[in-house]
Specification:
three-stranded antiparallel sheet, alpha+beta, single chain, Acetone carboxylase
């Protein structure tokens, strides 16, 4: 049996629920359409956004919506 973890903030040491999706890519490594995702809680959204923006990686910030588990496998 695999334990299902709840989505949490990507800030090191933070275990708060993810409230924001920070979509990013590294243009030196990734195709322009490719997106990686970090989650941020309300407290760390600004920090993580600044970190990615300073490196030219941030592409979009949206509210996070957890995938719906409909019980089918």
């Amino acid at each position: 049996m695999v334990e299902e973890l709840s989505p949490q903030c990507s800030r090191k040491g933070c275990r708060a629920p993810g409230a924001w999706s920070l979509l990013w890519n590294n243009p030196k490594l990734h195709d322009p359409a490719y997106r990686k995702t970090w989650l941020a809680c309300d407290d760390h959204r600004e920090y993580l956004t600044g970190f990615l923006t300073a490196r030219g990686f941030l592409r979009e910030v949206t509210m996070f919506r957890a995938p719906q588990n409909d019980g089918s496998a």
